[in-house]
From TrEMBL:
<protein>
    <recommendedName>
        <fullName>Enoyl-[acyl-carrier-protein] reductase, mitochondrial</fullName>
        <ecNumber>1.3.1.104</ecNumber>
    </recommendedName>
</protein>
<dbReference type="GO" id="GO:0006633">
    <property type="term" value="P:fatty acid biosynthetic process"/>
</dbReference>
<keyword id="KW-0521">NADP</keyword>
<keyword id="KW-0444">Lipid biosynthesis</keyword>
<feature type="domain" description="Enoyl reductase (ER)">
    <location>
        <begin position="55"/>
        <end position="347"/>
    </location>
</feature>
<comment type="similarity">
    <text>Belongs to the zinc-containing alcohol dehydrogenase family. Quinone oxidoreductase subfamily.</text>
</comment>
<dbReference type="InterPro" id="IPR013154">
    <property type="entry name" value="ADH-like_N"/>
</dbReference>
<dbReference type="InterPro" id="IPR013149">
    <property type="entry name" value="ADH-like_C"/>
</dbReference>
<dbReference type="Pfam" id="PF08240">
    <property type="entry name" value="ADH_N"/>
</dbReference>
<keyword id="KW-0275">Fatty acid biosynthesis</keyword>
<dbReference type="Pfam" id="PF00107">
    <property type="entry name" value="ADH_zinc_N"/>
</dbReference>
<keyword id="KW-0443">Lipid metabolism</keyword>
<keyword id="KW-0560">Oxidoreductase</keyword>
<dbReference type="InterPro" id="IPR051034">
    <property type="entry name" value="Mito_Enoyl-ACP_Reductase"/>
</dbReference>
<dbReference type="GO" id="GO:0141148">
    <property type="term" value="F:enoyl-[acyl-carrier-protein] reductase (NADPH) activity"/>
</dbReference>
<keyword id="KW-0276">Fatty acid metabolism</keyword>
<dbReference type="InterPro" id="IPR011032">
    <property type="entry name" value="GroES-like_sf"/>
</dbReference>
Amino acid sequence: MALVRSSAAAAALRALNGSCSLIGGLPRSSNALRIRCFSSLMSPPSTAVVYDQHGAPDAVTRVMEMPPVPVKESDVCVKMLASPINPSDVNRIEGVYPVRPEVPAVGGYEGVGEVYSTGAAVKDLSPGDLVIPSPPSSGMWQTYVVKDQSMWHKIDKDSPIEYAATITVNPLTALRMLEDFVSMKAGDSVVQNGATSIVGQCIIQIAKSRDIRSVNIIRDRAGSDEASEMLKKLGADEVFTESQLEVKNVKSLLGNVSEPALGFNCVGGNAASLVMKFLRQGGAMVTYGGMSKKPITVSTSSFIFKDLSLRGFWLQKWMVSDKAIECRQMIDYLLDLAQEGKLKYDFAN
């Protein structure tokens, strides 16, 4: 996830290539220095990354100036400070994501901003408050966003901006998958592919904070040694490239790590099969992505003799349930970890 401190225009020029990049860079300003040259019932004009049709992001997105919009009595106008480019954002632009806004649309789904102005009925938010959209919603790739007060969650002003902008989609996915499928206790272990992803890095650290060990699978590529060292510094117990697992019994490589009860798959294909090979009797593999676009192939013996369970996780479905308050409590927990230096991820991946 490459951290980009730039304007919305520069963000569009990055071609939205599917890496989890961060766009933003609007300076935070004191309330006293704000120039109130717009009506309190209107937002300032906004610069936005817009697409009118679905297709390749570098072909269909453009930067345009948006006119002021009304700020209704229960609305909050937020000056956006940063917003990431997640793979799911690219999929929405391409038109292949299951849930997407109607076009024309402004890109972006999560981010962080500073309250610029509020409607007359808003009591719990004030200009200068740091907020994130919770649950996430479309339209974050613009300089000013106006939404109902219920859509914004106030967070600690000391929260690191880059983590506040990215805390929901990936870290929350990691937390929910660790908690929702198998009851884990200290000394247990998990196995995952795609370990260098943001979700993968978060799984390692959250698991470590709970004395749960992690076995991690990464691709064979230039820089894999450096990637392995990076993951171990985050707390990974074991890191293997896919080629290192071309052995008859992968469990012989576990050393003093227990057989994993829970596995995570975001790749598919052979990488998913490797996760299943590590799982203990009755274990479960949770799939939350398919970056290789290859299907998951499961042997008959994995069901009959190992009694494995295959599950799926989609954060958006989880968040639209009756989880709003619980979700915000978890976000605060994750931001606390980030402030304490116990949760970090490499924005270059």
